[in-house]
Amino acid sequence: MNRCSWDKMVPQSPVTRMTRSSRTRHSDPAETQDAGRGPGSYGKRRRKQTDSALAQDLRHMSESRRGSLPTSKGKLSKSSGGLLQAGQSSGSRSASSPRGALASVARLVKLGRCQNVVVVAGAGISTASGIPDFRTPGTGLYANLEKYDVPYPEAIFNIDYFSNNPQPFFSLAKALYPGSHRPNYIHYFVRMLHHKGLLLRMYTQNIDGLEKLCGIPDDKLVEAHGGFATAACHLCYTVFPAEEAKRAIMNDSIPVCTFCAATVKPDVVFFGEDLPQKYFLHTADFPKADLLIVMGTSLQIEPFASLVNTVRSTVPRLLLNRHAVGPFEKAPPRRGDRMELGDLEVSVRRFAEMLGWNDEIEELMRSQETQAQM
Ligand code: CNA
User: Which residues does the record give as Zn(2+) binding sites (predicted)?
Assistant: First the structure.
């Protein structure tokens, strides 16, 4: 993987190493970016269009906010497209609401107001492909780590821990190596965004390679936490043939660097390691985005998690997840924030239906998956 000293090359990005989120809330860089910006290439005119399209939805949101009750902690609980009473399920709200989160964003897309969509994704988009995520209680990898014999869950992705004991990661890698899983409807939905010319970039934390497998081209994809396609020595970064590393790991042996004899590791980014160079495309992409879709991530890992705060403050952000995460946990929500809580595949299918893309996605998926079986 192409690593570089980002401290020197990108001075405005202070955090370049993967860390567990400290849960401190960052100030919103979008506010700062917008302050003082004139009507430039994506200045006032476009913003006004988006604002007026959102105005109706905001009116709807404030109406529902007036009708919602504080929880026992005095906070308002949130759900699809607005604020809900504590205990009211997002499912019931989105099913009955004529202007839910998905409908209002679908409307913007259909009006042609979302030409630079950025997608931010995590392990939740691949659970439908049979790959467990990290943190879902019961089924997530963190709940099932006893067999890897690690002192705490994150140790399995900790570079210092790996240095002393690579075995737990290699055991897990055997299960995660691309090859035994196929992309699902959610991956193909993102591919369709690209097909429609609307995808500016997809930023994924996933290491399963399913985005590439479904046909999202390389230049539209940032695998922020690396992957298994390449491998290198974890100490001196000498490149090692990825297929050889895979063969060794699959055979329960340890691939060793030909230069310094330290352990070789697939280029999955561990806690404490630098993110790949491509990740820094975000400095140009996020200010350009006119819709941000966040899906299947707990937004617990930095610096990735903070990316969602770097779109302009007027840009709609749609969260598709089982529960509210990151800035979507805050009440009141930012203007233009929407969430659809529940099973991701169900939400994405509904969204695609509203956009009129469902048949095309099904067809694309069928033809690509049939080809893969041949
Ligand atoms: P996470 O912390 O496990 O969060 C996943 C999120 O997705 C949670 O909020 C879940 O509630 C939600 N979710 C899971 N399944 C569904 C579903 N069917 N419908 C709706 N929501 C769902 O994982 P993150 O991606 O946030 O954490 C980043 C880590 C996870 C990255 O470093 C990855 O490398 C790592 N990871 C990747 C994979 C993979 O490549 N498939 C698998 C496991 C872990």
Answer: 233, 236, 257, 260
